[in-house]
Amino acid sequence: MSEPDTKCRPAIAHGMRLQWEAAQEAHVLLYPEGMVKLNSSAGAIMSRCDGVRTLADIVADLERTYGLTGLGADVSAFVALALEKHWLELRE
């Protein structure tokens, strides 16, 4: 699994929908065959994957929002996993 480029623009894959489920107190990823309940970190990352922001923008926003630094490797690893699972796709 290779790390995505920081200039890539990840987006929720076609046929998938990300939404907040109050009953589960979590973001869930819905698709025709079922649902994936995301942990809070995954939900925070996926909710920023709009096909407009670059991976670098997403990392910067997460670091700003949570007052942390050095999130790049973890965010990149999650995005790579989500791409592999076809939860995300890259936009031009």
Rg computed from alpha carbons, rounded to a whole number of angstroms: 13 Å
Biggest sheet, spatial arrangement of strands: 2-3-4
Sketch the major β-sheet.
Answer: 3 strands, antiparallel
Mean pLDDT across all residues, rounded? 95
Gap from first CA to last CA: 21 Å
Q: Which structural class best describes the helix and strand composition?
A: alpha+beta
Q: What is the helix/strand order?
A: EEEEHHHE
Please report which band the strand proportion falls in: under 5%, 5-15%, 15-25%, 25-35%, 35-45% or over 45%.
25-35%
What global shape is seen?
Answer: globular
Helix content: 25-40%
Count the DSSP helices. 3
Number of beta-strand segments: 5
Topology:
Blueprint: E1 9-12, E2 17-21, E3 26-31, E4 34-37, H1 40-46, H2 55-66, H3 72-84, E5 88-91
Antiparallel strand pairs: 1-5, 2-3, 3-4
What is the compact description of this entry?
The chain has 92 residues and is an alpha+beta fold.
Q: Which features characterize this protein?
A:
single chain; alpha+beta; 3 helices; 35% helix
Please describe what this structure looks like.
The protein contains three helices and five strands, in the order ββββαααβ. The chain is α+β, with helices and mostly antiparallel strands and 92 residues long. The strands form two sheets. The protein has a three-stranded antiparallel beta sheet with strand order 2-3-4, with helices on one face. Strands 1-5 form a two-stranded antiparallel sheet. Strand 3 and strand 4 form a beta hairpin. The mean pLDDT is 95.
